[in-house]
Structure formats: C-alpha cells, structure tokens
Design brief:
Layout lengths: L2 H33 L2 H7 L4 E2 L2 E2 L9 E5 L5 E6 L5 E6 L3
The chain binds zinc ion (ZN).
Amino acid sequence: MTEDTIATLAFVLVIAAPIAYVIRKVLKESARIKAQNYEWYKSKYPQHVRRGRVECCHCGSPRIHTRTAGRTSVSEHYCSHCGVTLYFSMREL
Ligand SMILES: [Zn+2]
C-alpha cells in the first residue's frame, strides 16, 4: 500500500464513514416519521382508534399527549402512561 492509499483509507474511516452514518440515520428517521402517521396507526391498530379517539396500543391508556419531535414541524404523539411513541404528525406552521 502506498502512503496515498493509506491516507485515503484513513480519511474514509475517520471522516466519511461517520458522516455517511449520520446522514443515513437522519434519512431513516425522517422516513419513519413520514410513514408512522395517524393513518398508519389507525390501520395497524384499528381496535385502538374508535370514533377519532386514540388509545395506546401497548397499555390501552387513552391519555395520548404530543411533543415536538426532532425537527420543529413534527409532533410526536405518545402515551403519557407508558411513554411509548404511537405516531407522528406534521404541525401546521
Ligand atoms: Zn401506553
């Protein structure tokens, strides 16, 4: 291996790999937020959504709260009893 090859390899491992990892993580999280919405929750757990009232799919609690998730335009709907995230929605700006 030449010095250039070693330098390139070191660059990839130290700089490019962590950057690629972070970008992939952000893209994956953003895809999850888009896919895991109210319609998804309703079709996945129809027994926990009745007449627009949502219950937790894990503990059955009707106490569902929202908080800002990651990006400021996304609301995370979570169970205030067991803390599990149920679905996401886009906040109106
Ligand atoms: Zn719960």
